[in-house]
Specification:
Helix content: 40-55%
CATH architecture of the largest domain: Alpha-Beta Barrel
Strand content: 5-15%
Order of helices and strands: EEEHEEHHEHEHHEHEHEHEHHHHH
Largest sheet: 8 strands, parallel, barrel
CATH superfamily of the largest domain: Aldolase class I
Oligomer: single chain
Number of domains: 2
Number of strands: 11
Length: about 325
């Protein structure tokens, strides 16, 4: 049984990665239903939280059915990060997660996210201060290092464990790589197999099939896997991996009707949470993924990604469902 403090996550937990403008409550609801064991909010700016910025505060919304749930924060100033941890504690999540992995320029170049990988002593100090400032378990998501010459994750993980983090998720790329090339899990395996490590170590990066999940589970010995981009438009991936681990069988891919139903539900929840204009706008990034690999779909996808008329979108989705037999899913 993998545990973060007293939070039981099962024998091999599957985690939903925190993704900006993706891991919101509507998306998390679908992932939870299909088997995600632990989820995280989108990352939240510590500066935005302490200034009470509406966008940052809205991201604190969590619901009982999501538990266990972690709220993730990022920032470059230690005092602001401590204060934001205190604000987060009042919303009563199960975990506070620190983002030391975001590679985006506007974050990393200010010394936050993966930017702090250029200053490991500060990273360790910030982590220690956050751990001391909250009663909640603190976890970290990070990368192998800033670039090829600074992949010190084995030592860094030890030092973060020593100051009190209770789990670590590691993305198998450096900041310089962004999301390019193939994720290297070798060092993730070294962290997990370091005899000094006693906290859960979760691997992240490029897991997009049940077979790959099992291969990496066996090869690197990680305690669980964190899934990010492969879950976008595909919340079924959690269920598929779990089924494969238990039975070595591949579940059939969700039907077009399944995809339409999930998509409609996602859209309606998105509108309920964000309002119609923003809810419709932010769903556009999901349509391509929900209907990936369907032949002769371009014209229908164009309607979905260009229309701001809710009735038109719902009618199009209903039409796709009713004409599902006319489309072909890629193998």
């Amino acid at each position: 049984m993998v545990k973060i403090r007293n939070i039981e996550l099962g024998d091999f937990p599957l985690l939903l990665a925190p993704m900006e403008d993706v891991s919101d409550p509507p998306f998390r609801a679908l992932c939870k239903r299909h088997g995600a064991d632990l989820m995280f909010t989108e990352f939240i700016s510590s500066e935005g939280l302490i200034r009470d910025a509406a966008k940052s505060v809205q991201k604190l919304d969590i619901y009982e059915y999501e538990r266990p749930i972690g709220i993730q924060i990022f920032g470059a100033d230690i005092e602001s990060m401590k204060r934001s941890a205190e604000i987060i504690e009042k919303t009563n999540p199960d975990i506070i997660d620190i983002n030391y992995g975001c590679p985006v320029k506007k974050v990393a170049c200010k010394g936050a996210g993966a930017g702090i990988l250029q200053d490991i002593p500060k990273m360790v100090k910030m982590t220690a201060e956050i751990v001391k400032s909250t009663r909640l378990p603190v976890t970290v998501k990070t990368r192998l290092g800033w670039d090829e010459k600074s992949k010190h994750i084995v030592e860094v993980a030890e030092r973060l464990q020593d100051v009190g983090i209770e789990a670590i998720s590691i993305h198998g790329r450096t900041r310089k790589q962004m999301y390019k090339g193939e994720a290297d899990w070798t060092l993730i395996g070294e962290v997990k197999n370091n005899p000094r490590m006693h906290i859960p170590v979760f691997g992240n990066g490029d897991i997009d099939t049940p077979q790959k999940a099992v291969e990496y589970k066996n090869k690197y010995g990680v305690d669980g896997i964190m899934i990010g981009r492969a879950a976008i438009g595909n919340p079924w991936i959690f269920k598929e991996i779990k089924h494969y681990i238990e039975t070595k069988e591949i579940l059939p891919k969700p039907s077009i009707e399944d995809r339409v139903d999930a998509c409609m539900e996602h859209l309606k929840m998105s509108i309920k949470w964000k309002g119609e204009t923003l809810g419709i706008a932010e769903m556009k990034r999901h349509y391509t993924n929900y209907f990936k690999g369907i032949s002769h779909f371009k014209e229908h996808r164009m309607t979905l990604v260009t229309s701001f008329d809710l009735n038109e979108i719902l009618e199009k989705l209903q039409w796709i469902k009713e004409h599902a037999s006319e489309f072909k899913l890629a193998e």
